[in-house]
Predict the structure.
Amino acid sequence: MGDLTMDFLRLMLMAAMLLTSLQGQAAEPAAAPVPATHEVEFLRSADKACTDCHKEQREGMHGKHGQATNPNNLAPITCTNCHGQPSPQHREGVKDVMRFSHSLKDKESIKLYPISEQNGVCMSCHEPKGLREALWAHDVHATKLTCSSCHQLHPAKEPMVAIPEKSRIKLCVDCHSKQHEASKARQEQSKPEAGKEAS
């Protein structure tokens, strides 16, 4: 009977071990199924609210900006990335979005949005180091001119990109000649007239 008891005890021990092993496996969390991911595509353009009124921009941005992604959120560039969110009163003519001036003569835009604010929008994506490497003039002009004084905002082809060296020099000469002429005219106006000095 001793052998039979021993065999029975071994069998019971093996059953207990098997049961413990099965219970341990049941307690381990099952690998959760990986949920399927779906890309959400917008049915309408993010710029539709803008282009409903600004029909001249219906084609959207062209050139580099049209194909670029915003480095801040890795999404396509939209009107609001550069112009900001309009208020509900925008449709009534309230000037509440960024307006970019195309020259220093555009006093209204510069008064509403100083040069530093306008250029700050551009610098939120365009790194100063890269601009400096592209052309030294970015450094000296960035505080005195808006980027849009030289660059177009929604161009099919940006005229300043890959401009030949001779054309760059012509731009400098043309612009600075105008400045020089305007400065000379102001000096002439401020000089006392020759006849008035003698009296």
About this structure: The chain has a mean pLDDT of 79. DSSP finds ten helices and no strands in the chain. The radius of gyration is 35 Å.
